[in-house]
Amino acid sequence: MPTSADKLVKIKQITGLSALLPTADEKAALAGVSAPGSTNKYATAADIPDVKKVAGVTTITSSSFDISNSYAGHYVRVNTSTDAIGTILGSKIWAIGTVIMIEQTGSGIVSIQGDDGVTVNCYGKPDTTGQYTTLKLICVARDVWTVIVGAA
Q1: Which domains does the chain have, with CATH numbers?
Q2: What pTM was computed for the model?
Q3: What pLDDT tens digit does each residue of the chain (152 aa) get?
Q4: What is the DSSP string of the chain?
């Protein structure tokens, strides 16, 4: 009596569907693992140099916080039940091109302002619009920031 594998081989031969049916290696790749006995290695984010990763994830629970260069490249989650204000510190400490993502994790709206001498540009207000919305802060010149509301 033919096995399921024999039937599958026969179907492939009759219909020419071999290109459409995944091999064990292809099934393993979809699952993110190597097939048993396979020498194939499937790439992870660490293997691909162009994959951008945040430098870290930070949670803030204060309604007032300073955004210092220690947050450069970070994803910052602001978890407060009251509205919160983040102040971008100045004095030319930022590298041009620095990006910081800020997420409103709690129910309080998160607003961004600049310290003395820091310009914050934004279409509309530099505020989150609800829980889990984000603000993308980009240093575009010395002490000049663009804030994009709802950015991914």
Answers
A1: 4-47 (no CATH), 56-149 (2.60.120.640)
A2: 0.66
A3: 555 555 555 555 655 554 455 666 656 555 555 555 555 555 555 555 555 678 899 999 999 999 999 999 999 999 999 999 999 998 778 899 999 999 999 999 999 999 999 999 999 999 999 999 999 999 999 999 999 998 76
A4: ---HHHHHHHHHHHH-GGGTSPPHHHHHHHHTSPPTT-------GGG-TT----SEEEEE--SEEEE-GGGTTEEEEE--SS-EEEEE--SS-SPTT-EEEEEE-SSS-EEEEE-TT-EEEESS-SB--STT-EEEEEEEETTEEEEEET--
